[in-house]
Amino acid sequence: MAKKYLIETFGCQMNVHDSERLAGLLEQAGYEPTDDERDADVVVINTCSVREHAEEKLYTRLGELRVLEEETGRRPLVAVAGCVAQQEGAALVRKTNGHVIDVVLGTQRLKMLPMLVQQATGTRRRGDRFRLLRDSAWSVIDVAPWDDMGFPLGVARRGDPVKAYVTIIEGCNDYCAFCVVPYTRGHERMRPKADILAEVRQAAETGRREIQLLGQIVNHYQAPDDPRCDFATLLEAVHEVPGVERIRFASPHPRHTGARLIEAVRDLPKVCKHLHLPVQSGSTRVLQAMRRRHSREDYLDLVARIRAAIPNVALSTDMIVGFPGETREDFDETLSLVEAVQYHSIFSFKYSARPNTLASKRMPDDVSEEEKTARIVALQARQREIQTRLYVQAVGRTVEVLVDAVSRRRDGEMSGRTTGNTVVNFPIPACGSDSESRIAAPDSGAWLGRTVPVTIWRAGPNSLWGEVAGVPAVARAEAGVGLA
Ligand code: SF4
Predict the structure, then answer these.
(1) Do 126 and 52 have their domain in common?
(2) Structural domain of 29
(3) What pTM does this model have?
């Protein structure tokens, strides 16, 4: 019987895509996927260390796996991959006294996973595991900082039937004072344009309608194999690939968002009218301390230029509250910036010192936990008001939605996203307009990956509800579908 694997992913889209690659590698080596940890021969935990909270999740999960072993007497081989693995290396095994972790795999060593799993399996079979309990040096560890950018085409086992992540840049050279990424993902490396386009074509040929281009500073792209190809040119090239209907990218840096990119987003119909522009703080003083290389004024000027060019654009951002030295006045500037920009969504975090970063070494974490909590609650409340106002404006309108999911919570309901990245929920329509199809069982598979017009009739603070326009709504009575 084939051995089974389970991959658990914490963190960003890059990690999600790395997990797709790890899954593909294990399947090439003969493993089969499982969702049940009791059934798994190998458990891979793909970690994130961008926030302290994300890192703590790893230790919680390792504790759960130990309890599982005590309960069942069966222990899967455990591999820890991702940013915590890269950051901690052998120290990670020592921290857990060698009790749980068999393999530590760095961010640039993904391709080594099957070999390291095989080595660790051999170690256990020989009984060295018992030595490992006393000496962590017996775990198999590979966190060498050698480039893992070239990945064989078609290896990734893509988990999403509609969207495909395509990495274009790895690493970052910016060293923002709070950010661990340059230490865990290494220096910035650009992937050749030819490789990127081959992967986009392959994703489109296998049914992926939306391409999401990924990089730590995605709009810093400069093709190593074509000196004339910057990020805007790459968008044009991806736009030409048959079968691609939508293009998104994450995350652009404000200081690299120039006129050419704004024009590309405006003029290329497949490029979604949504920009995620991380600002981190509304105070220029704090931005300088963060080494962000943009001021509040630069950012607001950029937003004004983007809105002048693309009036219907949706903007989102990342915010940190309680950065060292952030005063109440600085935080009020963050609130006023949020009000001025009117974001469609924000990702907000309380500052936590991350290993190796400039802030962790030189800046005392001097905003109290209580004050950080008060600030993030105030920020999220303000954003919620803004989102509610923005989303209500969509009621009564018909919007184009790329259908990407079947609801797990409500039978007969699907969801998708607008070009602005707003989630829209709707009952699965019948697949035709004759009387027979009106009572046919809803077929979610027929709708996944299609772009449909949805008329919005209700707005919540985080998503919209509607019905597919011009098609008989599913038979809510027959299918028992209701809308909240
Ligand atoms: S630009 Fe700054 S925040 Fe973004 S990945 Fe690089 S160092 Fe981190």
Answers:
(1) yes
(2) 4-142
(3) 0.91
